[in-house]
Amino acid sequence: MRLSIVKAIPKFPNNKETKDELEAMSLSQLLIHYFSWAYRSVSIRPREVEIEPTALKDKRWGSLKGKIDALLEKVRNGEDLTPHLSLQAHSRGYTPAASATGPNVDRWADKDFLLNAIGYHHFHLGERIESGGFATRTDEVVFARVTREKFTVVAIFDHSVFEPIGSEMNAERKRLWSIFDEHVTRGAPSGSVIISSPIATSGHPIHLVSMAQEYSWVVREMDPKFEDREFVTSLYVDAGLEEPKNPKLEWRLNFTDLGIYEKNHKFFFVLRRGCN
User: Tens digit of pLDDT for each residue in 221-234?
Assistant: First the structure.
């Protein structure tokens, strides 16, 4: 599994030194970087759609409704939403520079700052799929909270929302943080202390760090059981499947789900469900 993870993460610079650095990491370290990259994707599954008033009341909703409806139809049908996501995740998955020590290190060079900080994905609304496999880029994008079951449209923004924070935030950036603050404090009693999105000093969300640590523990504890016929049999019994004579098992990640994959019959036994 380690080699497949190293291969999957887009590296920059894409050279032997970067590859060697990833291969030298512990499994938990490697998984942190993998999850940081995979979190920027959305797993392929049907989802319920919910639309927040902050999106419906936007003056741009009417003119963009046709394009938004087309995107949401894909969401309900469980289609692959990758073409509508940012292109940066295809090339900027891990760089050693972001993990360097010392002053002036850009921790966000290989991360999506807004996704890590507020948990919202953004989706382009182009309806034509270009030759590169991505939807036509649009200035307006939809921000959404995405879980395994639900796709919640939060708001519409133009690309100025991604501009770096200087001495003062622009109007779109201010509106984004205002909407986020309203959402995370919704229903909380007055005077409550809320920690909305804890992030490690490395720039990685704490929930991804914890998930990486848990997955590495699962692999370490269960890997020796691949030679235990009773354990292997239990996988098939629990899944209601007939056990093959010579199962070929390996660890595998599907987006952020961890499981055991049986190569001959293409069974995937999910042991831990990921974040979306």
Answer: 999 999 999 999 99
Alpha-helical segments (H) within the chain? 2-8, 16-23, 27-38, 53-56, 61-77, 113-118, 171-185, 206-222, 229-239
Interatomic CA distance for residues 33 and 249, integer angstroms:
25
Q: Return the structure tokens found at 32.
A: 């942190």
Q: What are residue 208's phi and psi, to 5 degrees?
A: -75, -35
Instruction: Return the pLDDT at 165.
Output: 67
Kindly state the tokens that stand for 82. Answer: 């990758």
* Residue 249 burial (CB count, 10 A): 19
Closest CA to 173 of 161, 189, 191, 186: 161
Neighbours of 23 (CB within 10 A): 12
Task: Determine the Cα–Cα distance for residues 110 and 96; give it in Å rounded to an integer.
Answer: 9
Which has more confidence, 238 or 188?
Answer: 238
Q: Which residues contact 51 (CB under 8 A, 6 or more apart)?
A: 152, 153
Q: What is the pTM assigned to this prediction?
A: 0.94
The DSSP 8-state label assigned to residue 10 in this structure reads -
